[in-house]
Specification:
alpha+beta; Lipocalin; about 30% strand; single chain; 12 helices; five-stranded antiparallel beta sheet
Length: about 500
């Protein structure tokens, strides 16, 4: 009887069955990796059905024939026959394990985020919600009705900000056809969340919400969504629509936040009571704007802009972003420059790494500086030296770095008559004053103490050169010092007559 059981398993797990299993797993993997339900699912189900029929057939046959064989027959066959069956069965099981392990690993890999269709489905199951839109008429419920339905299922922040423009399409009767919006906000605990909202009436009466996806999330006042909802609640949208289109037309609302009024003739400014304001358009150049377009088929039939006239954006953040953009425009790799907004000096070695001499305090025309360092192109700075010039105060004349560790800074008086150099060999964490061999200067008639203005070093074919002048203008005889060991030792090279040009970046 035992031999008959071995025979059953050997026949059941024969190569044909293994091939069918492999094909089924292959189509399952294709579905998990690339999708294509209509293309891969029928083949996969077909293989599963064939495998099931095969198992049922041989199982039923085994039990029907089981009683027909005597114990004696089993014993007669149990010697060499049994060993052969065991070898074949072992090979078949090993083949199944290999096939199952191979495709199992590939299917598991497709579930890793961004690796396959299955990963996106898992993400969708985890982060998406289907919510029925009950208030589906903008004439009856306004735009706020959408978010009232949404708020019954999801806890929304009190203040939402748009990441992408909000768009809503409805018919002449006010029935919502579709809408799309991407929002960001903070919950009561201060945690940030995003909400991607999508609805298409032709496909489903449920709106889809994806939670906590990737997006350019910022607490930017000009992107507040509340002023738009207030505007839509206040105006008589149906009466405005009637002036644009008939019932057979399609209308589209679009909201992108606080914008410039580019077409005053077709802009209506409303007060909080939903009345058109008498405010002069010359006095109002910006507003929270909603664009309303009417379409007859695909042809634009009319458009108008609706403005929230009782809300103004706090432009503090906007100004900050403009200042940051201006600083980015000033950035020049390998050159120092001063930001005249706060009189800080910058030097970028490359696109990512840079240094800043930031004004900490100022008095009587002099400055006290701290040194900051950035590794992300200026997006953030970390203070690395509270007193780069020691206890000296003055006006810095620039920054210069040759690599991540080796660099120079300059400090002079406000009149531009003097400037001293300081060198660092640890990336700005510490600085030492540069001492030049003034005793080597023997070929000038006047006092070398008068050459108190040192320009930042310049690279030469053999090393570095430092120019000493009587003031920042450079309009005098110059003393030249050179170094071939990265400023560890300096030698006097002689004088240089009037220079035609002095680098303005170094002169300040």
């Amino acid at each position: 009887m035992k031999n008959r059981r071995l025979t059953y398993w050997t026949i059941l797990l024969n190569p044909v069955f293994i091939v069918v299993c492999a094909l089924g797993l292959h189509f399952l993997y294709q579905l998990c990796q690339y999708g294509g339900l209509r293309r891969n699912a029928p083949w996969g189900l077909g293989c599963a059905l064939v495998g099931l029929v095969w198992i049922l057939f041989w199982t039923v046959l085994y039990f029907l024939r089981k009683k027909r064989f005597s114990e004696a027959e089993t014993v007669e066959q149990s010697s060499l026959w049994k060993k052969g069956l065991l070898v074949v069965l072992a090979v078949e099981i090993l083949a199944l394990v290999v096939v199952g392990g191979f495709y199992g690993a590939k299917i598991a890999e497709s579930a890793v985020p961004y690796n396959g269709k299955l990963s996106w489905k898992i993400q969708e199951w985890r982060s998406s919600r289907k919510i029925k839109l009950e208030q589906d008429n903008v004439y009856e419920s306004g735009v706020s009705g959408i978010f009232e339905d949404l708020g019954e299922k999801i806890d929304l922040p009190e203040e939402l900000y748009i990441i992408n423009p909000f768009s809503l399409t409805y018919g002449g009767d006010g029935e919502i056809q579709n809408f799309y919006g991407f929002f960001w906000g903070k919950d009561e605990g201060g945690e940030e969340h995003t909400y991607l909202l999508d609805y298409d009436r032709a496909k489903s009466r449920r709106m889809t919400v994806w939670l906590d996806g990737e997006g350019d999330s910022r607490e930017y006042p000009g992107k507040r969504f509340t002023p738009f909802l207030e505007l839509m609640d206040g105006v008589q949208l149906q009466s405005i629509t009637g002036a644009l289109a008939e019932n057979d037309m399609t209308l589209q609302l679009r909201y992108a936040g606080y914008e410039s009024i580019t077409d005053p003739a077709r802009t209506l400014i409303f007060n909080a009571n939903g009345e058109v304001m008498g405010e002069s358009l010359e006095q109002r150049k910006e507003a929270y704007l909603a664009e309303l377009k009417a379409y007859r088929g695909e042809e634009l039939a009319g458009e108008i802009w609706l403005a929230n006239g009782w809300r103004y954006a706090d432009t503090t953040q906007e100004k900050k972003e403009k200042e940051e953009a201006a600083r980015e425009e000033l950035k020049e790799i390998g050159s120092c420059y001063m930001d005249r907004a706060d009189e800080s000096w910058y030097f970028y070695l490359n696109e990512e790494e840079g240094w800043r001499l930031r004004v900490l305090d100022a008095a009587a025309g002099s400055r006290y500086y701290v040194m900051d360092h950035t590794k992300d192109g200026g997006a953030s700075f970390q203070e690395i030296n509270q007193a780069p010039f020691g206890d000296q105060i003055g006006v810095t004349r620039g920054i210069l770095f040759f690599d991540e560790q080796y660099g120079y800074i300059s400090l002079g008086n406000a009149s531009g008559e003097t400037a001293e150099l300081y060198v660092t060999r640890d990336g700005g964490a510490s600085f030492q004053k540069v001492d030049l061999p003034w005793e080597q200067v023997t070929d000038v008639s006047d006092d070398v103490a008068g050459y108190g203005y040192l320009f930042l070093p310049e690279e030469t074919e053999t090393g570095l050169k430092v120019t000493a002048a009587k003031d920042s203008s450079g309009q005098s005889m110059h003393l030249i010092f050179s170094s071939e060991d990265q400023g560890r030792t300096w030698n006097y090279e002689g004088t240089e007559e009037l220079l035609d040009q002095i680098d303005a970046r170094l002169a300040g």
